[in-house]
What we know:
The structure is a single chain. This protein is mainly α. The chain is built from 15 helices and four strands. The strands form two sheets. A two-stranded antiparallel ribbon has the order 1-2. It is globular and about 90 Å long. It starts with a strand and ends in a 6-residue tail after the last helix. The relative contact order is 0.06. Residues 1-85, 250-266 and 507-511 have low confidence and may be disordered.
Amino acid sequence: MVMSDSPEGETVTVAAASPVAESDLRRRPIARGEVEDSESKDGNLVAEETSSEDSKITGDENKVENEASVEEKKQSGEDRGGSGAKFAYRPSEIPAHRRIKESPLSSDAIFRQSHAGLFNLCIVVLVAVNSRLIIENLMKYGWLIKTGFWFSSRSLRDWPLLMCCLTLPIFPLAAFLVEKLALQKRINESAVISLHIAITTTSLLYPVLVILRCDSAVLSGVTLMLFACIVWLKLVSYVHTNYDMRKGTISVDKVDVVPGSPSGDCSHELSLKSLTYFMVAPTLCYQTSYPRTPCVRKSWVCRQFVKLIIFTGVMGFMIEQYINPIIKNSQHPLKGNLLYAIERVLKLSLPCLYVWLCMFYCFFHLWLNILAELLCFGDREFYKDWWNAKTVEEYWKLWNMPVHKWMVRHIYFPCLRHGIPKGVAVIIAFLVSAIFHELCIAVPCHIFKGWAFAGIMFQVPLVLITNYLWDKFQNSMVGNMIFWFSFCILGQPMTVLLYYHDLMNRKGANW
């Protein structure tokens, strides 16, 4: 029979033996408490004694060798009848302490342990605390969500924005026609470049002009600007990639290509079907084909849709029940009492963080995965573990992979190929990102104060600071804490307050 009563998870095997003379048992030392079996003449297994040498611990090798002697247990009469041998663990048999070990929560071992139980505890505490706050808020202020939160009579005035959004596919079609003419050599390269510049610029300016001329809701304007920016980024990738393929300078890395997928094909074949797939696919980087999954999991898609609806509702509840009342009862953070402004920012930081996390989960995890599943799009690395970022620079490389890949492919590497230093190339990438953040917020609000632009460009000195701290102390927690502090406590709440009060101060504004 096998028993696991020994420490360290070791197993000591004791088999029922036939009557064997004590002189027939061969004894030999066994290192580190291992028990080896030897067969008797009649084929039955008997338990041998185990012994180990005296332990000698040195500072360098930390070797632990133990000496333990175990006397044989004589078989009783009932043992001879075939019953199992009795096993008794003695203190002298196997030592309790055999090697150097760290505590599970020590700094050297904490990241090698599983902390699923502590994570579950944090979830329980978070749910309990926030449930109490929600109940307290409802008892104190009542139900603050308006009936027209999702749809109101004002939404009917946003039909020009809807029509503008529906006409955006004209620009990819125009870019396809230009590429077709270029491939057939009907127009020269300078004309191709000029036409593409005109098409991409118009695709961005057209929605801006429509939003500025219409008194639309802010949410509708933000949605249209996001679509317009996505179309612009996709067009730039489409044009840039086709230019490389025409020049024969493209190189395809087949290391990460899924076996059997056609994603490594670099042949320059223009196809309206491939362009259409690219424009709706959850990626900003164009290529002629992508890794594909074999089928669509319909039940999985339904579950993700249910989650999307639930978390969208949670996000709307947080905005209407918490964020709106806080900002309506606040002063301009740059024109009032400093302590009062700090208190408002700190009070606003938690609901803003919850809304941002819900937005991230809804868009980057749920929506992009739903879209990828419906299109059988294989590469679904839409984000990485940005929450573990050691520096601000690492965070920007991890949290939005579609934009990061686009920046690396069409901004950073082209700058390096033209002899621009790496630091300047990084600043250029942040500059492009800052411009688009400002467009997506300032245009729908009809306010051009530059708060979003300044917030993104402020990341550049934070990148330098956190990189310096990482190089000096090699401590991942310092940069991670700076990122969370600047992101949760200082960045988002301050931007929300600034834009809200500027919007309220604008003549004729109606939030």
